[in-house]
Amino acid sequence: xxxxxxxxxxxxxxxxxxxxxxxxxxxxxxxxxxxxxxxxxxxxxxxxxxxxxxxxxxxxxxxxxxxxxxxxxxxxxxxxxxxxxxxxxxxxxxxxxxxxxxxxxxxxxxxxxxxxxxxxxxxxxxxxxxxxxxxxxxxxxxxxxxxxxxxxxxxxxxxxxxxxxxxxxxxxxxxxxxxxxxxxxxxxxxxxxxxxxxxxxxxxxxxxxxxxxxxxxxxxxxxxxxxxxxxxxxxxxxxxxxxxxxxxxxxxxxxxxxxxxxxxxxxxxxxxxxxxxxxxxxxxxxxxxxxxxxxxxxxxxxxxxxxxxxxxxxxxxxxxxxxxxxxxxxxxxxxxxxxxxxxxxxxxxxxxxxxxxxxxxxxxxxxxxxxxxxxxxxxxxxxxxxxxxxxxxxxxxxxxxxxxxxxxxxxxxxxxxxxxxxxxxxxxxxxxxxxxxxxxxxxxxxxxxxxxxxxxxxxxxxxxxxxxxxxxxxxxxxxxxxxxxxxxxxxxxxxxxxxxxxxxxxxxxxxxxxxxxxxxxxxxxxxxxxxxxxxxxxxxxxxxxxxxxxxxxxxxxxxxxxxxxxxxxxxxxxxxxxxxxxxxxxxxxxxxxxxxxxxxxxxxxxxxxxxxxxxx
Length: 616
Ligand code: AGP
Fold this sequence. Notes:
Number of helices: 18
Number of strands: 25
Distance between the termini: 10 Å
Strand order of the largest sheet: 3-2-4-1-10-9-11-15
Low-confidence stretches: none
Helix content: 25-40%
CATH class of the largest domain: Alpha Beta
Mean pLDDT: 93
Number of domains: 3
CATH superfamily of the largest domain: Aminohydrolase, N-terminal nucleophile (Ntn) domain
Bound molecules: 2-deoxy-2-amino glucitol-6-phosphate
Oligomer: single chain
Strand content: 15-25%
Radius of gyration: 26 Å
Structural class: alpha/beta
């Protein structure tokens, strides 16, 4: 969850590392730090809070060296203090280390090191790892043509239980970085006379678009002109150099106040990108390049299982609804974090899907591995090219929406909804969905970006509504069928960025408990599109109104509500069932965003959260 950047080259390392850290801040923002090798010592600056605090601190340290490492922290072991911030130095001052992950056996290691007179300044597992490397480094003989640092890191990691993405420097090797991963992403950036390593492409794309995605169990040595990858078992790896297909401008905020705002307004284009080239020539179905499963095999699938976390799980729940409705195949969705520990009976002929924007969520990755262990094929819907999930899945569908920086997922969510809808179409057309119904479905999906544009035009109206409700403390989001997951998503969005208590419920379920919360102080957002159960939802609204609960109704244009029933009305255009969840997501995203802005919250970096959750 933490952000990692390392640089070795001819430029001053600190400004490049700080720039990279700013782009990684969404990964963790409890504290940040940088260490640079200069004049025979490590100059270290670290500070709690944002990278902006670190910049001021770094200015005091006059960091001029051309090799260094930097880190943004999301605290696991030890509180949010300057001492616990990374980089850590070993007590003999020989080793500097940054780390993402959790060292599970750090207590026994620490005991061992204390007995050998190593001392500790922090409460972190990372400092223990750093000292253990120093211990091995001190004992490692210098062998011509071999890296002492590489060997000692290798030896250390053989004793480690847990997860890590690390970058290490040694005091007597000013032009060398060693980096290794197990469970935490690391990417090498290959430049001209310089090399970089980072936890995320965003931190290095301003220097180079040539990257190597490190795999679990791999360790790499970087110098300004060279890099070499091997495994912990000392097998040499032939690197595969990939080209990043987006530029730094994609990860910048431009004219917007927040990344979340930018990403909400980017959704029409994001949807266009996610569907480009993915419809059949006859315009009646979807097609995907990377499924690695033949139509015949797909035809034999009798059940689908979807696993994901958070927002991505809500997208899976909508997909469940659409596949069951249009393809008539049973679908089960589960929290990835539960699935991995539940002994779920799985049927034969089940196709397993995971969804993950980042492709690094540890629970989702663990669910994928568990399903593969049981012998199932696992496909992934994923946004980040080259992510661990993308690499470990048997096939999948990239979302192609560019980097999502706001911690609250928006464009990644609607593109997952779109891909879920396309999957339902693809499977449906193999079964009972007619050519004509397929063509109507495809045309509807193609029209989705324009419908989203229409809803976005209501932003000023939704902002006015947000102002009226921003200072409430509770809010319900109610929807039915495919919009029940959108109600869950609305509540999640509001909770995570505005710290307001919100719950999502199936509208009719509300009377089985949550109705007790209703008063003039608890507004309800109803997702009430035109359709066969519109009148049932209106009845639920009446029940809320009878208890003086304010109502914000999201209804189809032209819908007739009894006069005075809704306090606020937001309209969405009439649309195909497959497009409805996408279109209905826009008002709940805007409402949450503007409420958070009104409450003065840090929208892009909500407290306690990190964009990608790479620890359990
Ligand atoms: C979304 O707003 C959240 N920040 C969070 O629920 C997120 O969707 C979840 O952690 C899963 O992330 P992933 O899609 O990268 O796997």
